[in-house]
């Protein structure tokens, strides 16, 4: 029996459920990055970054290629960038609504 689509979607979104993985995807949305560049940008331990990159690779969201001693990562699809943009838009709307509610609460007291 195959895995239900809703379960696959949940696993996909679980992959996105870590701040380091989101930051990596944001950086890769701009351009391909070497691991050394990602380390400078994100400022985490190399072992932690390696672990997070492995999760993204297993999920099929990023690809890796070796160039000499350096390993470069890129998004597998521009749709990943689009997904991040949609998430940002949704979050902006949610936070905007919360700010309006906060302002209403503050002015009504």
From TrEMBL:
UniProt-listed CDD domains: HTH_ARSR (cd00090)
GO MF annotation list: DNA binding; DNA-binding transcription factor activity
Keyword terms of this UniProt record: DNA-binding, Transcription, Transcription regulation
Pfam families, per the entry: HTH_5
Domain of life: Bacteria
PROSITE patterns on file: HTH_ARSR_2
Domain HTH arsR-type residues, every copy: 1-95
The name this protein goes by in its record: ArsR family transcriptional regulator
Biological source species: Pseudonocardia hierapolitana
